[in-house]
Amino acid sequence: MRIPMKRLVAVGAASMVFLAACGGKAGEGPGGEQGASDEPATGGTVHMLQNSDFSYLDPARGFDGGVNAFYRLVYRGLTMQTAGDADDPNEIVPDLATGLGEVSDDGLTWTYTLKDGIKFDNGDPITSAEMKFGISRAWDPEIGIGSPWVKQVIDAPDDYEGPYRTGDIPTIETPDEKTIVFHLKAPFPEFDAVLAQANAVPFPEGTGDGDEFLSDIVSSGPYDLESYTPGSSISLVRNENWDPATDDVRKAYPDAWEFEVGLDQSTIDERMIAGQGADANAISGTLQASTLPRLQDPRVSERVVEAPAYCLTYMSMNTTSEVFSDVRVRQAINFAIDRSAVVNASGGTQLADPATAILPPTVNGHKDFDLYPGVDGKGDLEAARELLEEAGVDDGFEFTLDIRSQPKMQAQAESIQQALEPLDVTVNLNVIDTSSYYETIGTPSQQNDAAISGWCPDWASSASTFIPPLFDGRNIVEKGNGNLAQIDDEAINTRIDEIMAMEDLEEANVAWGELDEQIMEQAPIAPLALEKGLFLPGENIAGFHPSTSMTDLTIIGLEDPSQG
């Protein structure tokens, strides 16, 4: 998943609350104390303060951590990732379906049965036809720029372009109103997790064409959209046609949600520290580095909640651009980058660790290696110079680096500028608004030489949602592209197929780690940092279990709703 920093796709502004995989015990503050995890009560309004707007209200388009958290409040799928406070918050559980999928002996057919009593916000029943229609929107070349998984796994005619352009998709069958059957391209044991993706949700047939869902939604979850002012505010109210008896995960404690968008990050942190008025009922994303010294105040420190790093911050290098077409140049960049400086730019060691591999340690399959070690914890300029000389560019060059319009991301980019300057490498920064960043860099025709991005696992039980989206050359598309390096290597593609076919998940995870190292030999990206999180929920917030890539909004509420 991008992350601004899920996709990925990862992955959403660091100022947002993120949604994706989360392992270990959540909701623990420094020293292991519980933070904001008392049992919520029903009622009141929870406020969310964030720097940037969500990418899209339409789940077929959005694919980043912040908006995925929002989607869980308003949309439902056949399956979903379980609650953030569960013993195993990575577990995939039934949602609109009565159970997980029933798979055929050859692994190519998966069948689901819908629950009774499930409805849209207008009271119309959700049937298999609406489920099929909503999922088929993922194939639309303009709208379906979100999660790629359903398109990659579900079989479909080569020329299929979604319901608006092509019509019915024959490889998803609906023999009756309660039954939906999926035919896959190849066996995929983790298909239940594919259907837990944000774009695998139902919509009434015929809705959502063009820009219809840019400012409105059709809700199937516990909340409905009351108002939306892009770049400013989002208001959610209860969906009276959501039946909690059909939903085992979403608790939907608050009566309403208010999202304040476009706030300066310093303002957000200041308000969260003060916690006055409605801000006692507020949450926000991870704190910025400049705020950390103020957390020593005992009145504040008791509210701090930690979250481990589940996502990778990295710099992709466009292998189709002239400047990065030579593997030796890409390897030189990996040697030259001072990752300790990137960590400092990310807020210091309290908020980040240096990254040398693709897979974070929290993702099953991680292998600990460093092909491009620095000197004294910094870069190795001599090793970089030797490679640039071999490549015939030792007299220097310049390239354009795409970055998000946020101070931390700009500081990370400046650390790269400074590290490469002694090599006479000039890095020109192209600053893009956060709300449109991933759509821009995910469109190859608009992509420059390099980009700082992030990726979180769509499900953390294996690396299958990390390596293939970023490095399978067959997944390069005109819009919504996750393979920012645009690397299309036959050996990598073949090995991905071999690992994806492995039925033994432990064996596959070992193989993913080995492939991680194989890919880094070609250096299509430069791993930069593993960003941790420190959160400061309001004093009246309960049920807050954060992660740098997954904060489950559906279980958050207020301790005392009369104060909200």
Reconstruct the topology from this structure:
Layout: E1 45-50, H1 65-74, E2 79-81, E3 92-94, E4 102-103, E5 109-113, H2 128-136, H3 149-153, H4 162-165, E6 172-176, E7 179-183, H5 191-194, E8 223-229, E9 233-238, E10 256-261, H6 265-274, E11 282-284, H7 298-301, E12 305-307, E13 312-317, H8 327-336, H9 339-345, E14 352-354, H10 381-390, E15 397-404, H11 407-420, E16 425-432, H12 434-441, E17 450-455, H13 467-471, H14 490-500, H15 505-522, E18 525-531, E19 533-535, E20 541-542, E21 557-558
Parallel strand pairs: 1-10, 1-11, 15-16, 15-17
Antiparallel strand pairs: 2-3, 4-5, 5-7, 6-7, 8-9, 9-10, 12-19, 13-17, 13-18, 14-18, 20-21
Family: Belongs to the bacterial solute-binding protein 5 family.
Organism: Candidatus Brachybacterium merdavium
Membrane topology: Lipid-anchor
Textual characterization of the structure:
It is found in: Cell membrane. With 564 residues, the chain is an alpha+beta fold. It has 15 helices and 21 strands. A six-stranded mixed sheet has the order 14-18-13-17-15-16. A five-stranded mixed sheet has the order 8-9-10-1-11, covered by helices on one side. A four-stranded antiparallel sheet has the order 4-5-7-6, with helices on one face. A hairpin with a 5-residue loop joins strand 4 and strand 5 (109-113). The protein starts with 44 loop residues before the first strand and ends in a 6-residue tail after the last strand. Residues 1-35 have low confidence and may be disordered.
